[in-house]
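Thread: "does anyone have the structure for this chain?"

Original post by V.I.:
We have the sequence but no experimental structure in hand. Need at least a predicted one for the grant figures.
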Amino acid sequence: MDSSVRGRRNTKALIVAGAAALVVVAVVGALYAFGTLDGLFTARGGDTPAKAVTLEQFDKIENGMSLGEVNTIFGGTGSLDENTSHEDDEGNSLTTYTWDGASSDSRAIVMFAADTVVAHTHFGLE
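Reply from O.Q.:
Generated one for you, C-alpha cells below.
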C-alpha cells in the first residue's frame, strides 16, 4: 500500500477520533449540566478507586498519555462510562473515564482512543 494512502487513512482516523472525543465531551458536559450523570458510571471491579482529584492533578494530564499514566496521576482508577464508550469505524476502542473531585458536583472526564488520551475536561475541580 502506498505510504500516502496510509497517511491519509491515519489522518482520517485521527480526525474521526478527535471529532468523536469532542462529541463525547459535549454530551457528558450536557449531562453534567442537567444533573443526569448520577448512576451512569460504574467502577471497574478490583481496581483501586481514586481519591478526590484536584485541579493541580488534572492540569498534568496531556493528550497521548496512557490510561495507566492517568491513573497514576489521579492516584487510582476512574469509573468507565459505558454509555459513551464504543468503537469507531476503524475498529479503535473509544472509552471515557471519570474521576470524582472533592465536591459532589466536581469531576474530571478523560476520553481515550486505543488507551491513549485524546480529550479531557473537568467540572468544578479545585
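V.I.: this helps a lot. The radius of gyration is 15 Å.
O.Q.: and Residues 3-33 form the longest helix (31 residues).
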